[in-house]
Amino acid sequence: IQQVFRQLFYMINAVTLNNLLLRKDVCSWSTGMQLRFNISQLEEWLRGKNLQQSGAAQTLEPLIQAAQLLQLKKKTSEDAEAICSLCTSLTTQQIVKILNLYTPVNEFEERVTVAFIRNIQKHLQERNDPPQLLLDFKHTFPVLFPFNPSSITMDSIHLPASLNLDFLNKV
To answer: Coiled-coil regions in this chain (predicted)?
Structure first.
C-alpha cells in the first residue's frame, strides 16, 4: 500500500509541476498559496492514514518548493540567495522557467526582472543539474516485496509424483 501511494503521489507531483512549467496563467502568488494548501491537505491525509513512512510526502518536495518559489519575494540579492538555498529539489532550468513565467495577478505584485533572474542563474551556475525541464510522469519506482521466511524446513516437504518434478533432488 505504501509503495502504491508513493507512486501515486509522484505522479501527482510530476503532472502538476509540468503544468506549472508549461502554463503562464498558473504561475502566480495565488496559485502558490493554493498549491501549498492542497499539498498540506495531502500530507495531513497521509498522516491520518499512517502512511508517513511510505516516501509519498517526499515525492512532493519539488512541487512544495515550486509553490514556495511562487510565494517568495523576488527583488533583492538576499531574495535570490533565499530562493537558491530553498529550491534544492528543483533544477536551475525549472527555477528560471517559473520565474520567467511568473505573472502578477494584481497591482501590488511586480513581474520578475531580467536582472533578478540573471542573479539567480549566477548563484546556481555551480550546480550539476540534469538538463531536463519537465519531470517524467511515467517514471515508476521499483516494487519491493518483503521476504518472510517460512517456518517449514525443506527437509519436511514431500513432493507428490503427480507434479512431475523428478528433476529435483533432495540434498
So the answer is: none
